Amino acid sequence: MTAKLRSRRRSIALALVLPAALVAGLTACGNSPPSAPGPQAPPSASAPASPAASTLKMVNVDGRRLAFHVTPGHLPAIVLDAGGGEDSSYWQRLAPKLSQDTGSMIITYDRAGLGNSDELPGPWNVHSAVSDLEAGLRQLGVTQKVLLVSHSQAGEVATYFARANPQLVSGAVLVDANLPPFFTDQEIARLVAATGPQVEEAKKQPSTKENRQLIATAANFGPAHHEYHQATWPNTVPAIVIVSTKTPFDGSPEDVQRWRDAAATFAKAGPDRELVTAEGSSHDIPVDRPQLVLDQIEKMAGRI
C-alpha cells in the first residue's frame, strides 16, 4: 500500500467514525444563545399555513441541557440527526425546505458535547445518545409517528433507537449511514489502526470541547462496534437506505465496495426496505444531492 493511500484511508476512516468537523480543523459553529425551557404542547394535528421558523428548546436530561430545534407542523415528526462531529446546523439548508414541502414538525438537535448541548464525561456511548433522544422527544411531547433521518454515525443511534422504540418510529431514511453489516472484525481493526495516530495527536493538543469529543468518540470504538455488528433493525419499521457512489472511502475501491455491499445487505435483510443510490455523490449526500434526500424523506413521510 502506498503512503498516499495509507494517508487517504486514515482521513476517510476519521470522517466515518470520528467527528468530521474536528478532523477537518473547523471551529465550532456560532449558534444563538439557548433559550429557557418552557412547557411543551403536543404536535399540531394540521400543518401550519406557511413554514414557521424553528425555535430552540433546551431540555434537561439527568442535569444536562440538550439543544433541540423545533419547527411546528403535523405528524409525522421528522427528526434529522447529523453524523459524527456535526450538530444541528448541518441541516440548516434542508430543514426549511422540508418543512415547506411536507408541513411536518421538523426536529434537529445537538447530541451531547456538540453545538449548544452540554458535554457528557467519558467515552461516547451510543446507548446514552439513544436515551438522550428518547428523553428529548418525550419532553417535546412527541410520542408517536417519528420519521428518523440519520446521516453517517447517526445511523448507529437510529438502529438502537428503532430497536428500543418500534412503536414510536414509523419509518427511517438512512443517509450513507453506519450500518451493522459493515463493521466486521476485519473492518473494525482496519479503522482503529487508521485513526490511532490522529487520536494520539489530539491528546497532545490543548483540551477543548472539540478535542474532548474526538477523543471520547474514539475511546470505545472497537468494543462498541463489535456489539453494533450484531444489532438488527426491527422488521416493523420501514427504511429507505441511501448510499453514495463515492462513499466515505473514495479512493479506496476495496472499502468503497465493502461500504456499498453493507448497504445492500442491510436493505435485503428485512421487509419494507429500499436501497437508493446517490449517483456522483460523496459521503455528504445532504450537501451534494439535497433534492434526492428531500424526495426520499417525502416519499417515506407519505407512507406513514
TrEMBL record:
<feature type="region of interest" description="Disordered">
    <location>
        <begin position="31"/>
        <end position="50"/>
    </location>
</feature>
<keyword id="KW-0732">Signal</keyword>
<dbReference type="GO" id="GO:0016787">
    <property type="term" value="F:hydrolase activity"/>
</dbReference>
<dbReference type="GO" id="GO:0016020">
    <property type="term" value="C:membrane"/>
</dbReference>
<dbReference type="Pfam" id="PF12697">
    <property type="entry name" value="Abhydrolase_6"/>
</dbReference>
<dbReference type="InterPro" id="IPR000073">
    <property type="entry name" value="AB_hydrolase_1"/>
</dbReference>
<dbReference type="InterPro" id="IPR029058">
    <property type="entry name" value="AB_hydrolase_fold"/>
</dbReference>
<dbReference type="InterPro" id="IPR050266">
    <property type="entry name" value="AB_hydrolase_sf"/>
</dbReference>
<protein>
    <submittedName>
        <fullName>Pimeloyl-ACP methyl ester carboxylesterase</fullName>
    </submittedName>
</protein>
<keyword id="KW-0378">Hydrolase</keyword>
<feature type="signal peptide">
    <location>
        <begin position="1"/>
        <end position="28"/>
    </location>
</feature>
<feature type="domain" description="AB hydrolase-1">
    <location>
        <begin position="78"/>
        <end position="295"/>
    </location>
</feature>
